[in-house]
Amino acid sequence: MSRLSKPSHAWLAVAILLAGALVFLPAVRAPLWLDDYVQASMVDGSFPAARGPTGLYDFVGDDDRKALMDRGILPWWSNPRLKVRFFRPLSSALLFAEHRLTSHAPLPLHLASLAWWAAAVLAARSLYRRVLPERASTLAMAVFALAPCHALPLAWVANREVLMSLAFGAAALGLLARSRTAPTWGGFLGATALFSLSLASGEYGVCFGGYVLAFELSRPGSRWKKLPGLLAFALPAAAYLSVRAALHYGAAGSGFYHDPLRTPGAFLQAAPRRLITLLADGWLTANADDWASEAPLWLLAALLACALLFFARPLRTAMRAAGAPAQRDLRWLAAGSLLALVPVLAAAPSSRLIAVSVLGTAPLVAALIDHAWLSGAASVLPDQRLRLAAIALGFLHLVHGPAISWFTSRALQATSVESAASARWLRDRIGDTSAASVVVTRAAWQSVGPLAVDPPRVPARWRVLVIARHALALRTNDRTLEVVIPRGEGFYPAGSNDLFRSDDDPIRTGDEVDVPGMHVTVVDAGISGPARMRFVFDRSLDDPSLTWVAQTAATYKSSSPPGVGFGARLDP
After folding, report:
1. Is the whole model's pTM more than 0.70, yes or no?
2. How far apart are CA 397 and CA 44, in angstroms?
3. Do 378 and 473 have their domain in common?
C-alpha cells in the first residue's frame, strides 16, 4: 500500500487533471472542423434537410440523400444506398443547445468537451480506487488521463459523444465494482441509469458490455447474484438497440463503416487489420492508425505478437503479486478491455475508438509499474525482464503517450486552423451571392465543403471532381473536361479511407452519374490502366457563375479550367 496520505493522493489527482489540460490545450483551442460545420448548419437551418435537437448525428438517410448529392455535400461518386445515421440523442441534444447558446463559438464548445473529459477521468479514478491500492490507482489515472485516444474527441467537438459515453459508462462500472460482494438494488438502479445515459450518448456505450460480462463471470457466488449486474447493462442495451433498429439508424454503403449485421463479410475481412491497429494504439501508444493501413498485415501481426508476448509474463506476475481480490479485478478489466474493441471494429481504425478499451488497460500498466518499481519488494526482485517490461510500458504510457497526445493535439489544431482559414478564403472568393457553383478540381479528404461558408454566401452547388494525388485534365470542348488518373491510383479513396462508397459496390467503366449542372461518365475505371472520367457541364466552363478552386491538404487556392484543346495538371 502507498505510504502517501489520502490528501496527497487527492492533490496528485488534481495535478494529473491539470497536466492533462495542458497536454490537450492545443485541441481545446482549435476552431470548428469537419462535422462541426455540418452540425452548425443543422442548428441554423441551412442544412438541406431539417434536423431537430436529437438529429445532429443524422448525416445521410434515404429521405435526404438526393438533396445532399444535388447540393454537393455528398460527392458524385457516393453510393446510391449510402446511409450514415448515428443514434446519439443525448449528445446531440446537448450540442444543439450549446451551439444555440454560444452562436457556434468554438472555445466554449471545447471547454464543455474538456469538462466531459475530466468527468471521465474522475469516474475512472473512482473505479481504479475500488480495484487497486491508492498509489497504483493514481498511476492508472495518469495513464488513462493522458492517453492519446482523447486528443481527437477534444479537438473535434462533433466527436464529444466518445467522452460522454465514457464518463457515464466508467461511473456505472465503478458502482458495479463497489457492489462486487453484496449487490444492492441501489447499485443496480444506479448502474442501470448510468449505462442508459452512456448508450444515449452514443454507440460507444455498447463497448461496456464486455466489461460487465467479464466482471459478472469473475464474481464469486450463484447465478442469481450475478443477474442484477448483467441486467443493469442488458436492459438499457436492449432498449437502445431496439429503438435504434426501429428508427433505421446505422451505416450502409460506406467503406469507412462496416455494419456486422448488414455486411458481415466486409466486417470480418476488415476486422483483423483493424483489431491489430487498435491493440497497437492501446497497448503501445503506437499511433498505428496513421501508418498501419499501408503495412502488410502479417508484418503488423508479427510485430504486435512479439510485443505482447514480451509483456505477457511480467503482467501476469504483477497481477499475481496484487493478491486474490485485486488479481480477479485486473483479470476482468483485462478481458473487458479486449471485448470492448469488438463493437468499434465496425469503423475505420482510429485512436478515438479505443477510449473505453484504455479504461481497462491503464490499471494493468499501473499494476506492473507499481510492483516492479514502487512496491516494498521492488528492490529484491530478481526478474530483470519484469523490470524492463515495466520501464518499457512506463515510458510508452507516461512519456511517449502524453507526448503523442500533445503533438496530435497540435497537429489537429493546425489542421483545423488551416481549414478555418480556407473557409474564410472561400467566403471572400464566392462573394455575396449564393447563386455561384463551386467546382473543386482536386480536393483532399479534409475538404471543408459548402457548409463552412456562412449564409447567405453558401454556394448553390459544390462539385468535387476528384480526390487524387495526381491528375491531368483535358478540355475537349466548351463544356467538357476529361480527367485522367495514373495507373494504380483512384479518383477517390478506396477501402476504409472513403466514407462515401464501399469496395463491394465500386464505380465501374461505363457508369454514368447525373447531378444538377453536371453529367459524369466513367470512361475507364482504371482496373487495367489509368482511370478516365468525362465531366460535361450544363454551361460553358468559363461561365462566371462557376467558381473554380483547387485544394491541397486543408488549403484552397484559385483555379481555372484549361482552354479548349489544352490540358492542365491538377497536382498540388
Report:
1. yes
2. 42
3. no
